[in-house]
Structures are given as structure tokens and as C-alpha cells.
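Researcher: Structure prediction, please.
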Amino acid sequence: MRNINVIVSLLFIAFAIKTYGQQKERYPFESEIAAFKKADSLQMPPKHGLLFIGSSSIRLWDDLEARFPNKPIIKRGVGGCQLAHFPAYYMDAIVYPYEADKIFVYAGENDIESGQTADEVFASFKKLWELIRMKQANTPVYFLSIKYSNSRTKGFPQVKEANKKIEKFLKKKKNGTYIDVASPLLGDDGKPDDALFKADRLHLNAQGYDRWQKVLEPYVN
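Model: Predicted structure follows.
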């Protein structure tokens, strides 16, 4: 009998934890979004800054602000989020409130890794573009091309096609710019240069961000 009671108790605890987790995270990375909102409530970044949104390549860029010290950088990288998460969940929390003068977007890797196609990634970007335009009709939007990494080689064809579709789309849009940040990370053999990545062969190290900084400087300044 005692063993049964223990089992029932453990099942109840497991159910409670699961339920709490579901309540805690009603959408992907809700806790991170809540943290940004809390920080903004304490000290809102000045409006008309330069907003960087995206996945962990933005979140982990620890010295982004220091690399552009005279610019009002607002960094809003979210966990391992997908591009699709921005139009679905994040606009009101970490895009619209800042009324940014420029918006830089880096995401799409995780969408492809999750099994999405290039067409689906492109559709997510178009939705993001449309939602930005609803509130900020003339704000320049810069899409940082999806990078290749040796930890995710199976997705290379979809990465290439998604980049191609987004680049073609932005060429026809006023105040829309595609920035190639993928090619500078390739070695002479045309493959991602692991010397520019952390040990996980996925995220950039300081040398990788050096490459990105060089490419971005004309657009940030």
C-alpha cells in the first residue's frame, strides 16, 4: 500500500511540474521574452535605436554593443528560436515597442533544423516583413543571411534556397536589404571554416563575429 501511495505521489508531482511548465511557457521561450519585458519596464531603451532580433547567433553576441559603441544598439536575441516565432509571438514584446530606426534580422537556422523547408522559412520572413510594415512603413529592414555550419550540413540545400528566395524578395522592396554574412564564414574550400566557430561547430566565436562586424559596419554606421 505504501508503495502505491509513493507511486501516486510521484505521478502527481510529475503532473504538477508538467502543468506548471506548460503554464510557464505558453509559447517558445516565453520566459526570455518576459525577462526582456521586465528589463524594459525598469529602463526602456531609447526609441529609434538599431534593433537586432533573431536566434542564438544574436543572443550570444556578447560584445555586439561594444563593437558599435557610438550606436544605440538594442539586442533582442531569443534562445534557439525560429524565424517563425517572431511573427507568431514576439512582435508586441520585442519589436514594436522600440520604434527602431533600423531592424536587423538573423534567424532561420533553427527552422530548417526542425525540418522546415526553404519555402516555409521564406513564408515566415514575408510574414515578419508584413507585420513590421504595418507599424513601421519605412523602417529599413536588413536580413542577415542564414549561415552554414558544419554541425548542420544536412540542411545546406534548404539554407541556400531560403537565402536565395529572401534575397530576391528584398531586391524588390523599398528599404529592404539582404546582407550576405554567410560567405565570409567559408574557407577556401567553400565549406564553413571551423576556426570561426565555437567547439559546437554551430555558434560563432570572436573571430567569426569579427567577420560579421566587418560586413555589417556600412549598414550600422
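Model: Strands lie at 50-54, 73-77, 102-106, 141-144, 176-179.
Researcher: Thanks, that helps.
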